[in-house]
Amino acid sequence: VMEGEALVRELIRKIQAVRKENRLHVKDPIELWLHSDEKTNLLLTKKSSEIKSGVGAMKTHVLKAPIPKSVKTRAAVEFEGSKIEAGFEALKKGKSKKYLNTGSVI
User: Fold this and answer.
1) How do 103-105 and 73-79 pair as beta strands?
2) What whole-number percentage of the chain has pLDDT above 90?
3) What is the pTM of this model?
4) Average pLDDT over residues 17-45
5) Most C-beta atoms within 10 A of its C-beta, which of 4, 8, 53, 69?
6) Do residues 73 and 18 make contact, with C-beta atoms less than 8 angstroms apart?
7) Where would I find the H helices in 1-106?
8) What angle do CA 91, 97, 102 make, to 5 degrees?
9) What phi and psi values does residue 69 have, to the nearest 5 degrees?
């Protein structure tokens, strides 16, 4: 398994499970926020295209700081010593929230 592939698959699986619990359809676009340690954040940034397509995200934010409290839908993944916090919101077409100085928008 290539570097991080199993972690990315587990993250996608967990986010999709939480989407389902929140009655979001697979085609409902989301905006996704991710937060982890520096090394894992680099991996998440590198794998952002795969994550975005895997979870149906229109935008993905990899944050150095914790996910904003206003993002209510959350998931956490612990995998091989890495912990990733994920938060997302369903988007209405063409809408996106703006957060300044929180990390990279991909």
Assistant:
1) unpaired
2) 73
3) 0.83
4) 93
5) 8
6) yes
7) 5-21, 38-46, 48-55
8) 130
9) -60, -25
Collapsing DSSP to helix, strand or coil, 51 comes out as helix
Task: Region of 101 please: left (phi>0), alpha (psi -120 to 50) or beta.
Answer: left
Total Cβ atoms within 10 A of residue 63: 20
Residue 26's pLDDT band (cuts 50, 70, 90): confident
Kindly tell me the sign of the dihedral angle through the C-alpha atoms of 88, 92, 94, 99: negative
Tens-digit pLDDT profile for residues 42-93: 999 999 999 999 999 999 999 999 999 999 999 999 988 899 999 999 987 5
- Two tokens at 12? 């996608």
Instruction: Establish how many alpha carbons lie within 13 A of residue 63's alpha carbon, considering only the half-sphere containing its beta carbon.
Output: 20
